[in-house]
Design goal:
By secondary structure, the protein is of the alpha/beta class. Helix content is 39%, strand content 16%. The strands form two sheets. The chain has a six-stranded parallel β-sheet with strand order 2-1-3-4-5-6, sandwiched between helices. Helix 7 packs across helix 12 and helix 10 packs across helix 13. The longest helix is centred in the C-terminal third of the chain and has 20 residues. The protein is elongated and about 65 Å long.
Length: 325
């Protein structure tokens, strides 16, 4: 592992963030950089000297965007400390920020380097931005095993607060229930007040609220498969975790980790016929299900700590070389 004194700088470290940092298993995503480099996370106001670190990272979420100029002012351009910025918000949601698009580019220019987590997202960022998905604790995940009974007809669907729609998901499950009347559908990670879909309460057999990640994993792995009908471009941390846990997934070709880990069950988000066919095969065909899981458990190693570190350090070394010129 590279020796890198790493700091993630945030506006506020709330109780939810503290709990997420302590979770076992660890949820995939940004916080894993802290674990990978054995670094720390501190609110801006508690950092005494930013130049004590090799890398200061700021996640360009709406909550923390205002910190970027303040952190830049604390780190002279002549410093050996690098200010690394990253975006992991789906690009389709950027227009919701009510800011001029050029302002977002100007913020990226404050960093010594910047990366996005998915190639289409990164293509909308400043020239020279890197594409580096966040790490996942693959080694730890693979200790867990799915707990479902092959005769059980429970299936999971994933809700996204940033895409609070279940219209096409409902149409797809309606088609599947006509083939399998005993199908029992569960909608996970639902957040009340985020959806205007009036049929949601009757369409799904069970609606699961947001949970602590270990509780979520223990619950969701009792299902036959997960359906993630995300129509936005994202690297997709849920698909990575599912691949490592051994939970088959059906999803869309907008999600990088679905294309990489679950190519046999990945479709256009509005290809209802293809999606239902994949779901049917996962229910009826044990050999196909094993093929899907075996491929996914190998492919998800792309996101492990070692490979993620290699990609990150390549960005760091390239940036250092560029700044020397």
């Amino acid at each position: 592992m590279a020796k890198l004194k790493y700091l993630s700088c945030c506006f506020n470290l709330n109780e939810g963030m503290k709990a997420a940092l302590q979770e076992i298993p660890r949820r995939g995503g940004y916080y894993n950089w802290i674990h990978l480099f054995k670094g720390s996370i501190k609110p801006f106001k508690y950092v005494e000297n930013f130049e004590d670190y090799d890398v200061v990272s700021v996640n360009m979420s709406p909550m923390d965007q205002h910190l970027i100029k303040r952190v830049r002012d604390k780190i002279p351009k002549s410093s050996s400390t690098l200010l690394v910025l990253n975006n992991d918000y789906v690009t389709e949601c950027w227009s919701n920020w009510s800011q001029h698009p050029y302002n977002y580019i100007d913020l990226q220019d404050k960093g010594d380097c910047v990366f996005g987590t998915e190639k289409h997202q990164t293509s909308c960022m400043k020239e020279g931005a890197y594409t580096i998905p966040h790490p996942h604790w693959i080694e730890g995940y693979k200790k867990y095993k799915p707990d479902y009974d092959n005769d059980d007809m429970d299936v999971a669907a994933l809700y996204h607060w940033w895409h609070p729609k279940t219209y096409h998901m409902s149409l797809i499950f309606d088609k599947l229930k006509k083939k399998f009347p005993k199908l029992y559908t569960k909608l996970y990670a639902f957040q009340p007040g985020t959806s205007k879909d009036s049929w949601l309460r009757t369409e799904f057999d069970e609606i699961k609220p947001m949970m602590q990640y270990p509780d979520f994993i223990n619950d969701v792995t009792k299902n036959r498969f997960m359906f993630d009908n995300c129509p936005y471009h994202t690297y997709g941390r849920a698909s990575v975790d599912n691949a490592a846990f051994g939970l088959p997934s059906v999803g869309t070709n907008r999600v990088d980790s679905m294309r990489r880990c679950f190519p046999f069950t990945t479709h256009d988000p509005y290809d209802a016929k293809g999606i239902v066919e994949s779901m049917t095969k996962l229910i009826e065909d044990k050999e196909f299900t094993q093929k899907v899981n075996d491929f996914a458990r190998d492919a998800c190693e792309y996101y492990n700590y070692k490979n993620s570190e290699d990609r990150y350090m390549e960005m760091i070394e390239s940036t250092r070389d560029r700044l020397k010129k």
